[in-house]
């Protein structure tokens, strides 16, 4: 009886498990690259821990959306649950949508893989009733460039506007591809309070638009440069022909990808004719001055000498001139400060270098004129500004030998001559030599050292050989040690290259690269900021250290296009040491 009962239980459980279904269905198996694909994962029994496939060759533009259908007909329960995704292909080719998994009643169920073919873009019929066609005609993303033929280092503004036709709605949007301005110095403008809906026209028709992004660019190369597009995935609501009882149109919701398109500008080089020798790349309209906080002071008392440029232009992208001071004045490295605001028209404000100067002797010290040259965009020519000549009066303190009169010099010489008459009087003319006491060699320390050294060398040699063989077999450890040595080598190279921008940042980037290879086993092909950020977050690295490491990588990238001073390089080198030290403590 017991055996029959067990067999019945197994039979019923087998029948129930055979009734469980978990399937994947697609809206089409062949589609154009400009079309969307719908994938539904459906089950007839509720389950837990649903895991979709990776969709690695597609972009998920919608979903997952979940729907449940639970009904009773003639006492029989009917249940279905589905997860739906909307996908956009990334490229043409033949791809496979992998298996989804779910757990039902303690068992894991998987869907079958589905093969999808993506072809070239297809011409969609211009059906005025097709929601996709209506959305394509009523939604436009435009990049408006303030100037298409700027000079090198002249500010241009790119404004991204989303135009929406009357009667069409936008529920939300998501940026799926941000432009990378590789040939520009760039800065996004804060749009707080600006991105409200405004009325305008697009190709002569009335539209509403919203400003999504405003970016200031300073071209760092001449010739034709490409401004990459901004791409968005948008949920659009378009009217249909169906109406409710009040005559209002029902709205159809569709997802659409829009792009601003590539924009090309032609950057003109600055003229060579009339270019001053001290020109360091300043472009705009500026004022220049050199000031001192003290004109009269005592020896060893400090004063501050400030070199300042103010105005409108590429303030962050050129070097300030250095004053030439008398050698009797002790000058320290300048403190660089920036008070720059970046608006839609470009940079505006002031930058300065403040030098601490300490005189050592009394005297009158002239500070020569300092010149600063820039390219004026209004006159299309170069201008040179010269500061006023300053004189520093040092009233109290020691007097330099160079400032003494001739009589004093003669008196000093006489004293030197008189003092040298008996210059050999202190030499000793007698000696007190004593014989050196010697011991037999076999009783000396040297004898015992030479005797015992071989007995100490033999076990030490055996230990060293054994340790070397162990290290030789440790492939992973040798790789880590080698990478650590390379990291130290490149960090040392970076220190030696301080003051040489390209060599310094190349060496710094290689040092960071090799450090991560040793700690995270990160291969060269995986070296990108997104991968690094993900790995360090998984290692529970705190946000301050993570941001510091990513900012160093960003500095290495921007260094190719941004002029940087020796002070900036010193700061980045110190920051690299601090970040690596912090990572060592957190990754061990």
Would you kindly provide a written description of the structure presented here, covering whatever features stand out?
This protein is α+β, with helices and mostly antiparallel strands and 588 residues long. It is built from 9 helices and 30 strands. Helix 5 packs antiparallel against helix 6. The longest helix has 29 residues. The radius of gyration is 39 Å and the shape is flat. The chain starts with a helix and ends with a helix.
List the main descriptive attributes of the protein structure presented here.
seven-stranded mixed beta sheet; 30 strands; 9 helices; 588 residues; 5 domains; Immunoglobulin-like
Between the first and last Cα atoms, what is the distance in angstroms? 63 Å
Whole-number radius of gyration?
Answer: 39 Å
Describe the oligomeric state of these chains in a short phrase. single chain
According to DSSP, the number of beta strands is 30
Helix content: 25-40%
Largest sheet: 7 strands, mixed
Based on CA inertia axes, which overall geometry fits? Answer: flat
Average pLDDT number? 79
């Amino acid at each position: 009886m017991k055996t029959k009962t067990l067999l019945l239980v197994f039979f019923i459980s087998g029948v129930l498990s055979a009734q469980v279904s978990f399937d994947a269905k697609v809206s089409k198996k062949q589609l154009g690259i400009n079309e969307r694909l719908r994938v539904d994962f459906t089950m007839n029994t509720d389950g837990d821990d649903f895991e979709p496939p990776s969709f690695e060759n597609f972009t998920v533009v919608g979903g997952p959306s979940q729907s449940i259908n639970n009904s009773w007909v003639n006492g029989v329960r009917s249940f279905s649950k589905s997860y739906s995704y909307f996908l956009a292909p990334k490229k043409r080719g033949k791809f496979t949508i992998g298996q989804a998994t779910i757990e039902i009643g303690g068992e894991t169920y998987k869907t079958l893989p589905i093969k999808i073919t993506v072809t070239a873009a297809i011409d969609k019929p211009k059906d005025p009733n097709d929601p996709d066609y209506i959305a394509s005609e009523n939604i436009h993303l435009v990049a408006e460039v303030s100037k298409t033929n700027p000079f090198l280092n002249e500010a241009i503004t790119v404004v991204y506007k989303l135009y929406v036709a009357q009667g069409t709605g936008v529920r939300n949007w998501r940026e799926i591809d941000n432009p990378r301005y590789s040939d520009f110095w760039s800065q996004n403008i804060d749009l707080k309070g600006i991105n409200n809906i405004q009325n305008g026209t697009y190709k002569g028709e009335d539209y509403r638009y919203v400003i999504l992004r405003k970016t200031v660019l300073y071209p760092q190369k001449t010739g034709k440069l490409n401004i990459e597009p901004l791409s968005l995935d948008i949920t659009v609501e378009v009217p249909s022909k169906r109406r409710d009882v009040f005559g209002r149109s029902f709205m159809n919701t569709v997802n659409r990808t829009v792009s601003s398109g590539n924009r090309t500008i032609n950057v003109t080089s600055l003229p060579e004719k009339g270019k001053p020798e001290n020109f360091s790349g300043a472009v705009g309209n500026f004022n220049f001055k050199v000031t001192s906080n003290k004109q009269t002071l005592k020896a060893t008392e400090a004063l501050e000498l400030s070199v300042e440029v103010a105005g409108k232009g590429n303030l962050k992208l050129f070097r300030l001139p250095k004053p030439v001071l008398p050698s009797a004045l002790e000058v320290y490295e300048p403190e660089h400060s920036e008070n720059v605001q970046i608006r839609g028209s470009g940079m505006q404000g002031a930058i300065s270098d403040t030098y601490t100067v300490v005189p050592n002797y009394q005297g009158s010290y002239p500070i020569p004129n300092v010149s600063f040259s820039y390219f004026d965009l209004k006159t299309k020519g170069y201008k040179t500004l010269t500061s006023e000549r300053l004189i520093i009066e040092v009233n109290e303190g020691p007097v330099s030998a160079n400032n003494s009169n001739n009589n004093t010099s003669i008196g000093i010489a006489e004293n030197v001559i008189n003092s040298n008459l008996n210059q050999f009087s202190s030499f000793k003319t007698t000696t007190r030599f004593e014989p050196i006491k010697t011991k037999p060699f076999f009783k000396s320390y040297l004898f015992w050292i030479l005797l015992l050294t071989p007995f100490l060398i033999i076990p030490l040699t055996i230990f060293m050989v054994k340790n070397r063989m162990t290290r030789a077999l440790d492939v992973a450890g040798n790789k880590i040690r080698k990478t650590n040595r390379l990291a130290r080598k490149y960090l040392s190279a970076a220190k030696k290259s301080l003051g040489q921008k390209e060599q310094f940042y190349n060496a710094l980037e290689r040092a960071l690269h090799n450090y991560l290879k040793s700690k995270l086993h990160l291969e060269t092909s995986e070296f990108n900021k997104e991968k690094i950020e993900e790995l360090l977050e998984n290692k529970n690295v705190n946000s301050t250290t993570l941001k510091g490491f990513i900012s160093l990588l960003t500095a290495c990238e921007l260094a190719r296009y941004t002029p940087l001073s020796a002070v900036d390089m010193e700061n980045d080198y110190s920051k690299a040491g601090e970040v690596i030290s912090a990572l060592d403590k957190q990754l061990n």
